[in-house]
Design a protein that fits this description.
By secondary structure, the chain is an alpha+beta fold. Helix content is 29%, strand content 33%. Strands 1, 4, 5, 6, 8, 9, 12, 15, 16, 19 and 20 form an 11-stranded mixed β-sheet that branches. It has a 9-stranded mixed β-sheet with strand order 3-2-7-10-11-13-14-17-18, with no helix packed on it. Helix 1 packs across helix 2, helix 3 runs parallel beside helix 5 and helix 4 runs parallel beside helix 6.
Length: 379
């Protein structure tokens, strides 16, 4: 339990339907280990003003609430918590129903109408005529042939290793693809690390031969490129090319972007397309449209926050925010009903979507909910 959040405060928020997912977890952890005397004081303090006698018509509904609570909230049927609540549950449930309308909230929590979870390390790797769903593969060697080894590490990432690979094998293209609700990290044959965001694709050879190292990206990816002045690293994305020697940068070509974006954290890159070419320095971003090539100064960390498990929205249009959430949580959103608002917010990518939508609702003054796997703006 968080040190700054008291038990009565957690219990009060639960009754007032204001608990976050994290606070609910804290409260139920406390319930399972609570001292009997302490628990009784907590219950009586919250309900001493509101407890009423139970009417006969309320009994079936309260029995159902009690049954759901005992089955789903607590692992041991005979826990000390249940022994305490067994004599108190009728009065407590009655008070909840009468004074806090909490019955509906309990059923919503116990029987959620959606099964939406944050994204995770999920991807499909296509190589040498084979496919592997990486989220389901245990650590170890995925492929070993012709001097090429593909290894899945304990942290879930994959590494390409080459030892005297023949040219035919080395030149074969592989495809790493993440679905909506997925992300993945890969170490290429030259030691460069690529992290692929949700709904994205990386095409690359098993090993780099020839005068350059070239890969292809769709969606969004973060690169930490191994330095090799003799062999430039080339990223082809959205009709543009990025040439680097060794650096860290983020690229994105999602539909909600103004164009293909490249944002430089360190080192330097040369960005080119049919409109021309520019060289970026750290904390600069280039946006390439159909016939434009614009450079602006930015905080590059904002555009790589996703690699550290965060959404960082800095004056970001609400429509863009919702598209990013929809892709990460693999849900739908109707962009046509969204007003023109910009958002300033930092949100964990591991947070429950209800908590995220609640924070956005508070920040914008709009009411967002999830219904049938779709983010809905309430009237």
């Amino acid at each position: 339990m968080e040190e700054n959040t008291s038990k009565p405060e957690l219990f009060g928020k639960f009754l007032a339907e204001k608990s976050s997912a994290a606070q609910l977890n804290q409260l139920f952890d406390y319930f399972g280990n609570a001292d009997q005397e302490e628990l009784e004081r907590l219950i009586r303090a919250e309900f001493k003003k509101d407890t009423q006698d139970l009417s006969e018509t309320d009994q079936p509904r309260l029995d159902l609430i009690y049954s759901n609570l005992t089955k789903q909230l607590f692992a041991k049927p005979e826990s000390k918590l249940l022994k305490v609540l067994r004599s108190e549950i009728v009065k407590i449930a009655a008070a909840i129903l009468v004074f806090f309308s909490i019955g509906l909230m309990i059923f919503k929590f116990l029987n959620p109408t959606h099964n939406v979870v944050p994204g995770a390390a999920i991807a499909t790797l296509s190589f040498n005529g084979a496919k592997a769903k990486l989220g389901a593969v245990k650590k170890g060697v995925i492929y070993a042939q012709g001097g090429i080894q593909i290894i899945k590490k304990a942290d879930g990432s994959i590494v390409y290793m080459t030892v005297n690979a023949d040219a035919t094998t080395a030149s074969k293209l592989n495809t790493l693809e993440t679905p909506n609700g997925g992300e993945y990290r890969i170490t290429l044959g030259d030691g460069s690390v690529v992290m692929l965001n949700a709904g994205s694709k990386l095409i690359f050879p098993m090993d780099f031969r020839g005068p350059e190292r070239k890969v292809y990206v769709e969606g969004e990816a973060f690169f930490n490129v191994t330095k090799n002045p003799e062999k430039p690293f080339i990223v082809a994305i959205g009709g543009s090319e990025i040439k680097v020697l060794g650096t860290q940068f983020n690229v994105s070509s999602y539909p909600e972007n103004e164009g293909t974006e490249a944002t430089l954290l360190e080192g330097s890159i040369q960005f080119s397309n049919t409109s021309g070419k520019v060289v970026l320095i750290p904390n600069q971003q280039v946006i390439a449209g159909y016939s434009t090539l614009n450079v602006r100064n930015v905080s590059a960390e904002d555009f790589s926050a996703w690699t550290k498990g965060e959404f960082l929205f800095n004056d970001t249009p609400l429509a863009v925010v919702m598209q990013k959430l929809a892709r990460w949580y693999d849900v739908e959103v109707d962009l046509t009903v969204l007003p023109q608002k910009n958002l300033y917010m930092k949100i964990s990518r591991r947070a429950d979507i209800d908590e995220v939508l609640g924070n956005i609702s508070k920040a914008t003054g709009l009411e967002f909910n999830l219904k049938a796997n779709k983010i809905v703006l309430e009237e």
